[in-house]
UniProtKB/TrEMBL annotation:
Enzyme type, top EC level: hydrolase
Lipid bilayer topology: Multi-pass membrane protein
Keywords assigned: Antibiotic resistance, Cell membrane, Cell shape, Cell wall biogenesis/degradation, Hydrolase, Membrane, Peptidoglycan synthesis, Transmembrane, Transmembrane helix
InterPro entries the UniProt entry points to: UppP (IPR003824)
Catalyzed reaction equations: di-trans,octa-cis-undecaprenyl diphosphate + H2O = di-trans,octa-cis-undecaprenyl phosphate + phosphate + H(+)
Upper classification of the organism: Bacteria, Bacillati, Bacillota, Clostridia, Lachnospirales
Organism: Jingyaoa shaoxingensis
Record protein name field: Undecaprenyl-diphosphatase
Similarity field: Belongs to the UppP family.
Coiled-coil region list: none
């Protein structure tokens, strides 16, 4: 892989990961059309994932730090409730238990957990199917057209007002299923989860925040899974530097695209992205048919 190819793929990853146009679909199409190969196997994919991971952390660092703090306090409160249970049983007492989910951030943490479980199960069990889909122009084409349909539906959905205190964990679980299905190339992860959140009546700003923060465990999980599959491939220092530049570009571009996405969702202007996905998806399918 050349430095120019690394930068181009980094830009594509940064833009398409956070705008609702599918990073997996674009990368699959680019690699199939132009035969771009990464000399380090899966290492470049892992580094691209980490670049987008740091972009999310940079934009939502205040929320993430608060969630980490509340997670620690929740664990402490659960331990405290265990001690109270033992005390009440032993002493025949009625000491009140601490309420665990008493604020929005604690509910947000549990919502992320509820979404991560189905995403992990679907992502792991369907990994062979996903890898097979990457080798064809047909699958990303169909996925992009499905993304276009979802965006049109989200554009037409009424504006909701739900924040964590109003949202059931079943709803969070279902959106986690949507995120798991979006591992298929062409189905935009951000587009699918934001659309599902808006259709479910979530507040617009919270829908974006939930979509991107719930991506953190998914991105880290995918990176870890890819690392375990890398085997003993060796990458030169020069090649690693090229990969690093691509990942840095993905992170920087991704940071600004998240900011842009916050503005887009606030105005609910998805139609342009839907048209774009429809065009690119159609071209991909036509190219697949033409090469048969």
């Amino acid at each position: 892989m050349t430095l120019i190819q690394s930068v181009i793929l980094g830009i594509v990853q940064g833009v398409t990961e956070f705008l609702p146009i599918s990073s997996s679909g674009h990368l699959a199409i680019l690699r199939n059309l132009f035969g771009i190969q990464t000399d380090g196997g899966l290492l470049f994919d892992v580094m691209l994932h980490l670049g987008t991971f740091f972009a999310i952390c940079a934009v939502f660092y205040k929320d993430i730090l608060r969630m980490i703090g509340e997670t620690v306090r929740m664990i402490s409160d659960i331990g405290r409730n265990g001690s109270i249970l033992i005390h009440n049983k032993k002493e025949k007492d009625a000491v009140r238990y601490k309420k665990i989910l008493h604020n929005n951030y604690r509910r947000f943490v549990v919502m992320i957990l509820c979404a991560t479980i189905p995403t992990a199960v679907i992502g792991y069990t369907a990994r062979d199917l996903v890898n097979l889909a990457y080798d064809s122009l047909l699958a990303p084409g169909i996925g992009l057209i499905m993304t276009a349909v979802l965006l049109i539906i989200a554009d037409a959905a009424e504006s909701g007002k739900k924040i964590p205190k109003d949202i059931s964990f079943t709803s969070a679980f279902l959106i986690g299923i949507a995120q798991g299905i979006s591992t298929l190339p062409g189905l935009s992860r951000s587009g699918t989860t934001i659309a599902a959140s808006l259709i479910s009546g979530y507040d617009k700003r919270f829908a974006v925040k939930y979509s991107f923060i719930m991506a953190i465990p998914a991105i880290l999980g995918a990176a870890i899974l890819e690392l375990t599959q890398m085997g003993s491939s060796h990458v030169s220092v020069a090649q690693f530097f090229i990969f690093f530049i691509g990942a840095a570009v993905a992170g920087i571009v991704g940071y600004f695209c998240i900011k842009k996405m916050l503005k887009i969702v606030r105005k609910k202007k998805f139609r342009g992205f839907a048209i774009y996905c429809l065009i690119v998806g159609s071209v991909s399918i036509i190219a697949y048919i033409a090469t048969r």
